[in-house]
Amino acid sequence: MTHHIDPTTLAQYVDHTLLKPEATAQDVADLVAEGQRLGVYSVCVSPSFLPLDAGGLKVATVCGFPSGKHHSEVKAAEAARAVADGADEVDMVIDVGAAKAGEFAAVQADIAAVRAATPAPVVLKVIIESAALTDEEIVAVCQAAEAAGADFVKTSTGFHPAGGATVHAIELMHATVGGRLGIKASGGVRTSADALAMIEAGATRLGLSGTAAVLAGLEADAGY
């Protein structure tokens, strides 16, 4: 299936991402220009860079990032401000500790609070920090995200020491909510082989900071 994906098609899976704390406005302008050149789906930047003219690309941002250890009303306020500032998509971080403690109703309520602040057509993605969770916790958190009305579940912030996306986590997420929610692989997806493996496992979106290298690798591998 996926070995037929060409660079133009793969680019449309990509949230072209820059979330480093030291990023500058010039870095974001460069990100947008590169994203336009590569034909990506969206650019994902920190909320302080909004509003952002992304030249026709979708604008994604983050909420409660990267720890998720924020009060729900603060996450909701941050998300509402991002939407007011023109964000098309908001990627929120759950309270990972609540998930580790088995408090899935609290996880669901936290997501629901942000969902209420980001009404459709805004896309709400829920970062579950899959590398820090057991298989059972991944499943339960995906179920909580669906129950709370989220549009996507997403593996990782890319900032957690436990690591980023894995094929196993994507497969679990897909088995739990695939076909109903989108599934975003992010964190450590750095090669075309990584990207294709994630799509094969069920990912419908990719969060990449090194998009150009991934697409160039695909061209080299496939002879495009």
Automatic annotation (TrEMBL):
It is an enzyme of class 4 (lyase). It is found in: Cytoplasm. Its EC number is 4.1.2.4. Keywords: Cytoplasm, Lyase, Schiff base. SMART domains: DeoC. It catalyses: 2-deoxy-D-ribose 5-phosphate = D-glyceraldehyde 3-phosphate + acetaldehyde. The keyword Ligase does not apply. InterPro entries: Aldolase_TIM, DeoC, DeoC/FbaB/LacD_aldolase, DeoC_typeI. Its main location: cytoplasm. Pfam families: DeoC (PF01791). Pathway: Carbohydrate degradation; 2-deoxy-D-ribose 1-phosphate degradation; D-glyceraldehyde 3-phosphate and acetaldehyde from 2-deoxy-alpha-D-ribose 1-phosphate: step 2/2. GO terms for molecular function: deoxyribose-phosphate aldolase activity. The active site is at D91 (proton donor/acceptor), K154 (schiff-base intermediate with acetaldehyde), K184 (proton donor/acceptor). Belongs to the DeoC/FbaB aldolase family. DeoC type 1 subfamily. This is Deoxyribose-phosphate aldolase. The lineage of its organism: Bacteria, Bacillati, Actinomycetota, Actinomycetes, Micrococcales. The gene is deoC.
